[in-house]
Task: structure prediction
Amino acid sequence: MLDVEGHYRAVGGAFWLALDEGGRVVGSLGCVMADSGDAVLHRLYVKPQCKRQGIGSDLLLQAEKYARARGCARVLAHLGDPTTYWESRLFYPHHGYVFLDDNRVGKMLDTHLP
Result:
């Protein structure tokens, strides 16, 4: 797996894993804080056979809560290649994200929520 400590935790970020009932990883999401004060999401992944069960949504909500607790007003995500990661172009807008350009989305957070 990734160097979670070096890429996320050591720089003030976080990385979450979603596990199935057998303890196997079925999803993941990383988040780092940018110098701009924005939270930037990385590596949102859900195993194909586990999609459409709310796993990605739960991970995203956890990352937004984490960002909000650190005073971030905006969350950003890079969508990657549209032919490979086409599902992300539907997923993020469903959760209130708007396109900033062809490959990036962002969402303003209500910092008054817990």
In short: Residues 4-108 form a domain with the Aminopeptidase fold (CATH 3.40.630.30).
